[in-house]
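This entry is listed below:
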Amino acid sequence: MPYLTINHLEKSFGPTRVVKDFNLSVDKGEFISLLGPSGCGKTTVLRIVAGFEEPSAGSVQIDGRDVTNQRPNQRNIGMVFQAYALFPNLTVAQNVGFGLKIAGIGRAEAATRTAEMLRLIGLPDLGGRYPFQLSGGQQQRVALARALAPKPRVLLLDEPLSALDAKIRVSLRQEIRQIQQQLGITTIFVTHDQEEALSMSDRVVVMNGGIAEQIGTPFDIYNKPATPFVAGFVGSHTGFDAQVIDPAAGIVAIDGAQLSLGQQLTALKGATIRLALRPEAARLGRADGRETLLKGRVVQVQFMGSIIRLSAMVGDTALTLDTFNRPDTPPPPLGTEVEISVAARDFIILGGAGDGIATEQTPETQRLA
């Protein structure tokens, strides 16, 4: 039985529907990320679960109890915000223990719990400092400890890492995930950063326009996008128009090269469907196990440290591919004619097999074209 259930959630602000028939079931101890662009409704869903917003329709249940009409302080939920929201006039220890004091926990028990939380976040000796004496990463750790101190049933995180620099963000997201797994607390994490969502989550909910476009594991979200939006928003890809040669056999043609997609297509012979290819799926030159050979011309080279990202014009399409950096093998110069190997199994049929949904290329691919 799910521990947290969101049923047919709707939220409108005036005439604008920002959440549309949103449904989600979360198991106890699961880490779920709500991922999507600004304005997609993810924070509104989180605030409804927290009790800060009233839904226009639908319900929220926690551990079998309907909490839709309960006030935030009745739900036993921990919340961490993007802005640390620490009390500047209280010490670190006082901030962490604030929720315990409000709950009427005895002084000795609260002190023990506060010390336990400070050890958990790796700041056992900083309880006497004030927030202004801490770094941004340390302040967010304190905010996390404050949310966890009262032992909430559910932990909600609203883009808690977006105000931090890149290196601290990577370190802290690993710590948050480790703490969440150690405590086994059911967690919903809101982010617009796909790398955060994919690296931290048990499952990801990709939101767009107030709806859940796809719910699945990070592996499935990335490798098996259910809609064109998911394919474009999560990771980058090159979009191809392919002509259907044999629908029953799944054979299509891209820039004159024929390949079998390994599944029956519903599109008619001669129809055009849209395919996508991730940058890591293509190989420069001929490669074993990649039976389709495309010819292109290098138009851009981006050195990214361990990865070199190339763009090559294949017909009228700018194909993006990633290759590992090797010190003894420099990337081909601009203008070089190259062969690119791909496997039919790596092509993603956007919008479902053979429905012919046309989608725009990613902004990156559009810029290269």
